[in-house]
Amino acid sequence: MERVGLREANIHFAKYIQMVKGGIAIMLTDRGKPIAVISPVAKREEPVEKCLQVLEEKGILTRAAAGKPRRRKLVTLRGRKLSEIVSENREARI
């Protein structure tokens, strides 16, 4: 683990982030005392299917039904067309 002072880390931030991306953990120190560690995020090696199943169980994800997707009924709104409003706003900026 690399030890780096806060000032040095601040000055060469991009360099140390590249090191972290390369798999090296960086310990940040303030006047020689450790205060934090920046480390790479552990890679998940679970299959995609397992991740989808967990999200579905938590209610975060609803899978599409097999076959042809259902078409939803279009909703008609009153008022001006959005394209007209956008065009007017663009012209007003010029």
Q: Can you describe what's shown?
A:
The radius of gyration is 26 Å and the shape is flat. Helices cover 39% and strands 16% of the residues. 0% of the residues are buried. The chain is of the alpha+beta class. The mean pLDDT is 87. The chain has a three-stranded mixed beta sheet. The protein is built from four helices and three strands, in the order βααββαα.
**If you consult CATH, what is the topology of the domain at 1-62?**
YefM-like fold
End-to-end separation in angstroms reads 55 Å
Report the total helices: 4
Strand order, largest beta sheet: 1-2-3
Shape field: flat
Name the average pLDDT: 87
Question: What characteristics describe this protein?
Answer:
three-stranded mixed β-sheet; YefM-like fold; 94 residues; alpha+beta
Topology of helices and strands:
Blueprint: E1 2-5, H1 6-11, H2 13-21, E2 26-30, E3 33-38, H3 48-57, H4 82-93
Parallel strand pairs: 1-2
Antiparallel strand pairs: 2-3
